[in-house]
Amino acid sequence: MAGRIDDEYQLLKAQTHRRVVDKLDEDGIEVARSNRQRVEEAVSRAVHQYLSEHRIPLSSQDITQLVRDMVDEVMGFGPLEVLLRDGRINDILVNGPDNVFVEVSGVLQKSSVRFIDNDHVLRIIRRILAPLGRRLDEASPMVDARLPDGSRVNAIIPPLALDGPSISIRKFNRHHLMAEDLIRSGAMTEECLSVLISAVQSRKNMIVSGGTGTGKTTMLNLISQYIPKTDRILTIEDSAELVLNHPHVVRLETRPANTEGKGRISARELVVNALRMRPDRIIVGEVRSSEIIELLQAMNTGHEGSMSTLHANGTRDALVRIETLLAVSGYEASEQAIARLITSALDVIIQLVRLPNGKRIVSEVVQLQPTEDDPYHMIYLYRSQHER
């Protein structure tokens, strides 16, 4: 019964939306150029008029909700708006009009939010892309973008997405967790914080390693707070997420190719350029490709204290991942030479994990101290009680 009622509401939304759009056009109201109050008043009038004309009985509470939904449709990103406003939500995953999931405190759960149909999902994707001049069609069926608040968006449509348009949003939070918050939540201990501060201030080159959603960017933001204020920092990211509380930061961001497939600026090119900008430290949001070569060489040539994140499920896995990135990027050297490059450049690996209950923790902090027998010999500076 609830499903039928919800279907009826989605149909009502679709019909009301058409009326609202027509009414705004009739009244000559350009949403992009009008103040929010004027648009809200016009939407409210159009909704009440439509309900009255068609004698649709709704409670005052349902009418208020319908008006709010219509305002979100014409001024924002439709059903996504309520999820974007919810500060508890970290990720929004739209797998089709009826399957919307959110991540709250590390745990995925299905949301009650729905889209009308696949065309509705596609309309919202195109609204996100419109101000960015990006295209999404059969010729270019997937795209990365960023919302005005900095949230990261990936969208993919048929024929690549077999079950209809899909959206993945990693929300951007300007109010990053402080060390006290992480200690209070049990994500790390005072001992761990002390180890991290010491590593940053003694200019150790560091990699924050972890799986998806383990809080790598949060940790990078946290440890960067302890960089001396006299240092000049250059950050390089695909989507700017780092918010460094530091007086001397230059932020660089990669650029995707345009609709003609030209103009792409890669992280590797930005790292090369950053070396010409007199940085004391370079921070790469995440190493995913050939930028690893330049980053390791920068760490080896006077840019001690540089940092990045890496997708890996363990400290040993992180080293294997770096080796793999070097290999696929065309770095030709013997295994021994590659191991020497990595261990001479990299000092500390901070490993993050997400426990089955969704809690994110610092599982271990290791220092690389190569020996004759083991080029990747590690000394544990910190281990969580969950790993002991």
UniProtKB/TrEMBL annotation:
Q: What's the domain of life for this entry?
A: Bacteria
**What region holds the AAA+ ATPase domain?**
202-356
The record's annotation in CDD domains points to: VirB11-like_ATPase
Q: Where are the transmembrane segments?
A: none
Q: Name one Pfam family in it.
A: T2SSE
**Family recorded in the similarity comment:** Belongs to the GSP E family.
- Any idea what this protein is called? CpaF family protein
Species of provenance: Isoalcanivorax beigongshangi
**Lineage of source species:** Bacteria, Pseudomonadati, Pseudomonadota, Gammaproteobacteria, Oceanospirillales
